[in-house]
């Protein structure tokens, strides 16, 4: 009989919107995954990072979650998760996943705190 994995169910948040930022941080995400349940993390990032294409095949990625806060100007639309109402909505979308820990790679850590609280994520790590 194997013991249950007691490590936390974890997501990492990358706030910068670029593909280069995603590639730069990927090794850090992998290290966080090694300390997370089943050796995997959910990656929360903007659709503009192309995370599905760049990281979707990695064994340490549980899922890619789109954080649609700031679309490209050329899209001429408001992001689904922009503003206070959008952050609240994003937290509601995350809640069914029952994440236990969020690791921030963000310049403005106060924004993720709102959706983390709404989603029931009690452990938030990061700088800022």
Walk me through what this model shows:
- The structure is a single chain.
- The protein is an alpha/beta fold.
- The protein has four helices and five strands.
- It has one domain.
- It is 34% helix and 19% strand.
- Strands 3-2-1-4-5 form a five-stranded parallel beta sheet, with helices on both faces.
- Helix 3 crosses helix 4.
Which regions contain 5 or more consecutive residues with pLDDT less than 50?
none
List the secondary-structure elements in sequence, H or E.
EHEHEHEHE
Distance between the termini: 42 Å
Percent of residues in beta strands: 15-25%
Helix content range: 25-40%
Report the sheet with the most strands, covering strand number, pairing sense and barrel closure.
Answer: 5 strands, parallel
> Average pLDDT value?
90
Gyration radius, in Å: 14 Å
Number of domains: 1
Describe, in short, the structure shown.
The protein is of the alpha/beta class and 128 residues long. The N and C termini lie far apart (42 Å).
What structural keywords apply?
single chain; 128 residues; alpha/beta; 4 helices; 5 strands; globular
How is the topology of this model organized?
Layout (H helix, E strand, L loop, with lengths): L9 E5 L4 H16 L6 E5 L5 H5 L5 E6 L16 H12 L6 E5 L4 H10 L3 E3 L3
Parallel strand pairs: 1-2, 1-4, 2-3, 4-5
Helix pairs in contact: 3-4
């Amino acid at each position: 009989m194997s013991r249950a994995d007691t490590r936390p169910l974890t997501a990492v948040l990358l706030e910068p919107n670029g593909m280069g930022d995603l590639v730069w941080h990927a090794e850090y995400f992998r290290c966080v995954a090694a300390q997370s349940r089943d050796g995997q993390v959910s990656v929360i990032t903007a659709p503009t990072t192309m995370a599905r294409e760049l990281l979707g095949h990695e064994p340490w990625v549980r899922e890619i979650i789109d954080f649609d806060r700031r679309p490209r100007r050329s899209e001429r639309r408001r992001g689904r998760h922009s503003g206070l109402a959008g952050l609240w909505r994003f937290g509601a979308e995350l809640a069914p996943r029952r994440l236990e820990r969020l690791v921030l790679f963000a310049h403005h850590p106060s924004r993720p705190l709102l959706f983390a609280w709404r989603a029931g994520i009690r452990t938030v790590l990061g700088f800022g």
